[in-house]
Amino acid sequence: AARNPGQPEYLQAVTEVIESLWPFIARHPRYAEHGLLDRLVEPERMLQFRVSWVDDHGDVHVNRGFRIQHSSAIGPYKGGLRFHPSVNASILKFLAFEQTFKNALTTLPMGGGKGGSDFDPKGRSPGEVMRFCQAFVTELFRHIGPETDVPAGDIGVGGREVGFMAGMVKKLTNRADCFFTGKALAFGGSLIRPEATGYGTVYFAQEMLQQQGRDFDGLRVSVSGSGNVAQYAVEKAMALGAKVVTVSDSSGTVVDEDGFTPAKLAELMEVKNHLYGRVSDYAERTRTRFHAGIRPWGVKVDVALPCATQNELDEQDARTLVENGVVCVAEGANMPSTLGAVQVFERARVLYAPGKASNAGGVATSGLEMSQNAMRLSWPREEVDARLLGIMKAIHEACVRHGRREDGSVSYVDGANVAGFVKVADAMLAQGVV
Ligand code: NDP
């Protein structure tokens, strides 16, 4: 804590991982040697830079840009870029740290990184967003590349923003390969990449439910958020027969007791992805109920899928979900549950999957996008989806293998942390003290 003052999110992410690792390291003392843990909790490189840009009225704005290159032990740094006013070094360090373990879990050769800016895209014109992206990447481009660091999207960064940045990098480097992932199909993107995080989260939850002889059919599901991850989590849960009763954003929650339908989801996508509106606009258009200022966790459900942002589900929310009989919680977002909430789920033996396991489908499919780019071909939708499902099953198996408790149940927290750690740690030990 003394080395990372004012970085609560980073300390939270490290605490969760280290608590899982202690008992494992006690049984395998070679992982306590060579300063391994000390090295693992220190990012290899942190970049911070000024981003100046001009708005539509000619006014100059200055934002802060970051890239955290956490670990290259098993491959090039890989992780998204987030544009949100809350972005700071603590949040990006926690995301890059988590990404390192997550990427190891995917079985693909990718290290961990994350970046972004405190720029707020809400209310900005398309021209302003483009100029910001160009200004941001004009500095970032010299630190990234297909063999060093491969960025993608995250909160506030979707296909449009990735395209603006990739276009500027192409101009600056005189290289025609667009190595960002999350690109549009027209210039090397992968089918299923937009869907992958949401679909993967639901695939993972399905694997967990199957452990108890259940499936999604007929279950009530709450989803938080209404962005990329949330939308495709809703789509896949519905396709598997679940009744999805909530979506949300930072202003409140839509509760729809009739459940989502494909037509309602299309309307949500129109409002969020094309009109850049709010869930309250969606509620107005579809005459569903919008509750300002509340989160979805008070609604009685069988499965909860937090897909918005970090620390959006606290200890009290977790208790409410458990009292209401929740059986499965799978995180589409990164670290949406506080440490207290995780303890409540673990003690109640809820099937609880931390984001680094359940939302790894997004980066895994980014890895598949890199493979397709390297081979200069593109796989059909069915092939990418089948590979995604196979990867989520493999991650689930790894969690079960490393997370089995004495009473026979599975701690997916311990399983994910230990499985991810072993791969990164073995690579670090093999490469010497660097
Ligand atoms: P989007 O920008 O598409 O959507 C983000 C959603 O979260 C919006 O509904 C947004 O609401 C809400 N949100 C963001 N910040 C806050 C906040 N401070 N308080 C309350 N709600 C908030 O992002 P994504 O769907 O891509 O990302 C969602 C989560 O999933 C993030 O944690 C991200 O790191 C994680 N993730 C994403 C992956 C991907 O492939 N995109 C991969 C793996 C993880 P509002 O509009 O009101 O801000």
From TrEMBL:
Assigned keywords, A-Z: Oxidoreductase
Coiled coil: none
Matching SMART domains: ELFV_dehydrog
Superkingdom, taxonomy of origin: Bacteria
Molecular function as annotated in GO: glutamate dehydrogenase (NADP+) activity
Pfam short name (any one): ELFV_dehydrog_N
Boundaries of every Glutamate/phenylalanine/leucine/valine/L-tryptophan dehydrogenase C-terminal domain copy: 190-432
InterPro entries named in the record: Aminoacid_DH-like_N_sf, Glu/Leu/Phe/Val/Trp_DH, Glu/Leu/Phe/Val/Trp_DH_C, Glu/Leu/Phe/Val/Trp_DH_dimer, Glu/Leu/Phe/Val_DH_AS, Glu_DH, Glu_Leu_Phe_Val_DH, NAD(P)-bd_dom_sf
NCBIfam families: PRK09414.1
Subunit structure, as described in the record: Homohexamer.
PANTHER family (UniProt xref): NADP-SPECIFIC GLUTAMATE DEHYDROGENASE 1-RELATED (PTHR43571:SF1)
Protein name: Glutamate dehydrogenase
Origin species: Ramlibacter alkalitolerans
